[in-house]
Amino acid sequence: METENDFTEKVSKFFELEGILSLSIDGDNEGFFSWNNCDCCKSKLGGNRFDCSGYNEKAKAIQAGYQVCEDCIQYIYNGELPGLG
Ligand SMILES: [Zn+2]
């Protein structure tokens, strides 16, 4: 059973490892179904993935090509944790 803390920890770990401070959806794509692990929380559940990119302040470069699940998007954009409500 995954707890909320595990989730937020995975997300912050991802940001830390990638050296990015934020993540945003590329353009206004509405996502696509995929069985690939979410790059952010590593979720193995099939579901919507969004193409995302983040800005690496140290490298002063945009890092693109992340495939991020809906849970992470909700959390990153709205601060909403998965499975609540
Ligand atoms: Zn995720």
Task: Determine the mean pLDDT.
Answer: 92
Which distinct ligands sit in these coordinates? Answer: zinc ion
Query: Major sheet: size, sense and barrel closure?
Result: 4 strands, antiparallel
Number of strands: 4
Structure overview:
- The mean pLDDT is 92.
- The protein has 2 helices and 4 strands, in the order αββββα.
- The relative contact order is 0.23.
- Strands 1, 2, 3 and 4 form a 4-stranded antiparallel β-sheet that branches.
- Helices cover 28% and strands 28% of the residues.
- It has one domain.
- The chain has helices at 4-18, 70-78, and strands spanning 24-25, 32-34, 47-56, 61-69.
- The longest helix has 15 residues, at 4-18.
- Zinc ion (ZN) binds at residues 38, 40-41, 43, 68-69, 71-72.
Summarize the structure.
The chain has 85 residues and is an alpha+beta fold.
Write the layout of secondary structure elements.
Elements: H1 4-18, E1 24-25, E2 32-34, E3 47-56, E4 61-69, H2 70-78
Antiparallel strand pairs: 1-3, 2-3, 3-4
This protein binds zinc ion (ZN).
